[in-house]
Amino acid sequence: MTACLLAVSPLPLLAADGGLFSAEGVDRLHAEITDRVTRSAAWLDAFFVDPVYDEEQNDTRVRLRLDFFAERGESPETDLRVDLRLQLPGTRERWSLFVSGDGAEELDTEHGTPERRMDEASSIGLSYFLANDAFRSFSVSGSIKRRDGEYGLFVQPRYRRLWEMGDWNTRFTQKIGYHTETRFETESRLDVERLLGDDLFFRVTGEVDWEEEQPGIEYASEMMLRQLLDADSVLSYRWYNQFETQPEHALVVAVVGATLRKRFWRRWMFYEIAPYVAFPDDRDYRATPGMQLRFEMLFGRGEFGL
Question: In angstroms, rounded to a whole number, what is the distance separating the alpha carbons of residues 136 and 118?
Fold first, then answer.
C-alpha cells in the first residue's frame, strides 16, 4: 500500500478537538497545512539530494556519485564525482570546508540533465553561514575552482527566502559569483510548490542565469511532480524548457522525462533510473531519447547518512 508523506516525514496532524470551525481552529488548520508543505518539500529534496537542500547543509558528510549517460547520436559517457563537506569544530556550526571533484567538467550528453553544471567543476574552499533556517539562509563561500580548464579564485554569496502561504510555498534564491577567469555571474531562481493529496508534490521553477563572458542571458522553466511510492522510493516527472536571448531569442531545448530514485540494501545507498526525450534546437527539435543511470552513496550525520 502506498505510504503517504505524512507517515514518511512525519508531519503533524490536526487534533480532532479544540473547535475545528472556530477562528482558533481555522488558524491552527492553516498553520498545520503550511507546515506540511514545508516539511514535505524538505524531505523530498533531501531524498533526491536536490541543490535546493544540499547547498544549505552545513554538516560533515561525503557523497560518492557515479553517472552513466546514453543519448541517441552521442557516445555513452560516465562521470564519477566525490563531494566532501566538513563542519569545522568550534565555529558554532557556521564554518565548513568543502572539496568536490568531477571526472568531467562538462559532459557532452546534457540534454537530459537540465541542472546547470556551473557549480559542478572541481573546487576546494570554505563556506560561512550567517543565517540558516527554514525561512531564510544566507552564506558566503570562497574557493579555488576550475572553469574552462583553468583554476581561479571564486567568491559567491547566496541568499534564500521562503514564504509560506497556506497550501503554497514560494522560495526565492539568489547567487552572485565572481571567478578570476570568467568574471561575474548571477543565478536567480523562484520556486512555487504545494502538496497534492497525501503522496504527490508539485513544484514550478523559473530560473535566470547571466555570465559576463557570455552574450545575452539564459532562462529556464520547469514543472515537476514527485510521487511517493513507499518510504524508499520516489518517482519524479519533469518538463523542462531552456531559452537563450543571444544570438537570437530561441528555445534551446525542451525535455520531458521521469526519474525513479530508490534506496536499496543500506539506508545510505541509492540508485536512479531516468529515461527522457529531449527536443534540442541543434537537431531541429527532433525527438532525441536518452537515459541516465546513477548510483550514489551518502555518508555522514544527515538523515540519509550512517
Answer: 23
